[in-house]
Specification:
The chain has 321 residues and is an alpha/beta fold. The chain has a single domain, classed as Arginase, Chain A, CATH 3.40.800.10. It is 34% helix and 14% strand. It contains 11 helices and 8 strands. Strands 2-1-3-8-7-4-5-6 form an 8-stranded parallel sheet, sandwiched between helices. α10 links the parallel β7 and β8. The protein is globular.
């Protein structure tokens, strides 16, 4: 969409008809759709749907991630003017990306939430697009993985995180962001041999066969080595990427519920994500952005950049196919 065309539009988040192309409206005005994509429930011809899940009732400490999707969308409005740096292509020009809006749920019926979220993602996948989800606490990844496993079978999981989320918990009715990966492995949603956690720096007694590249290994061996190792682990099978923002050191992302020092720098995360180009990414999420604990907005900015990298990764394999 040309700049002159944008001046004649009321708000491209509602009025743009072409789902491809950059946006040139003022970043400080208009509806805060992700990357100024069109808000729509019409998924005909859509390649990728961005959706928000403002759920934070599974946290073990500080709430606030219910505001994450809104903050990430607002931060993303700084990005849609130029192609993403370093990728050599523009996914917003080549693929139809829309903002599907937030999932509606009754906050007072927490027990109903998991199935509601699985159905939400299932509906999008059935229509054809993949998903990038803006959270929300990390529990949301578990119901999302259910929908993906229904479609692809057990998939590979790339998890950027300070915590393994492998605390033992065989009670599937419990809704806990610290047991998301445990349940996903135990119920067969992910293949642990094709799964890897990056940035871990808290104790875990049993990784259940999931590969681990802890934060110290990233610091010592570098981003290129890390990306190559992750690509080796996940191979070319269907892979889902979940990025807990607390994978970043609190110096770069203080706005999260359970910050842990010694984490990744933003430049390391960017280099690793771009080094994953070529994996068969079928979907992803950014979780645990908690705006109340970051008055600068830097954490939401980081979350928006991660989501943009997920879009780039999603499109990379498809444009090469």
């Amino acid at each position: 969409m040309a700049l002159e065309d944008a001046r004649n539009e009321v708000d491209v988040a509602f009025t743009r008809e072409d789902r491809r192309g950059l946006a040139f409206e003022n970043a400080f005005g208009g509806a805060t759709s992700f990357l100024r994509r069109r808000y729509t429930k019409d998924l005909a011809g859509v390649d990728l749907a961005i959706t928000g899940v403002g759920f934070d009732q599974a946290v073990s400490h500080r709430t606030g991630t219910r505001f994450g999707p809104r903050a990430i969308r607002e931060a993303s409005c700084l990005q849609p003017y130029d192609p993403p740096y370093g990728w050599g292509y523009d996914p917003l020009e080549e693929f139809a990306v829309v903002d599907y809006g937030d999932m509606a749920f009754d906050y007072a019926k927490v027990a109903d939430f998991p199935d509601r979220l699985t159905a939400h993602i299932r509906g999008i996948l059935t229509a054809g697009p993949g998903t990038v989800t803006l959270g929300g606490d990390h529990y949301i990844t578990y119901p999302i993985l259910k929908a993906y496993a229904e479609r692809f079978g057990p998939i590979g999981l790339i998890q950027f995180d300070a915590h393994s989320d492998l605390w033992p918990d065989d009670d599937l009715s419990r809704i806990d962001h610290g047991t998301m990966t445990y349940k996903a492995v135990r119920t067969g949603l992910v293949d642990p041999a094709r799964s890897v956690q990056v940035g871990i720096r808290t104790e875990c007694e049993d990784y259940l066969g999931v590969n681990v590249i802890d934060a110290r290994a990233v610091h010592e061996k570098g981003a290129d080595w890390t990306a190559a190792r992750v690509r080796e682990i996940v191979g070319q099978g269907p892979t889902y990427l979940s990025f807990d923002i607390d994978a970043l050191d609190p110096a770069f992302a203080p706005g999260t519920g359970t910050p842990v020092w010694g984490g990744l720098a933003s430049w390391q995360a960017a280099a690793i994500l771009r080094g994953l180009a070529g994996i068969n990414l079928v979907g992803g999420d950014v979780v645990e952005v908690s705006p109340p604990y970051d008055t600068t907005g830097a954490t939401a900015v980081a979350g928006a950049h991660v989501a943009m990298e997920l879009i780039c990764l999603y499109g990379w394999t498809r444009r090469k196919a």
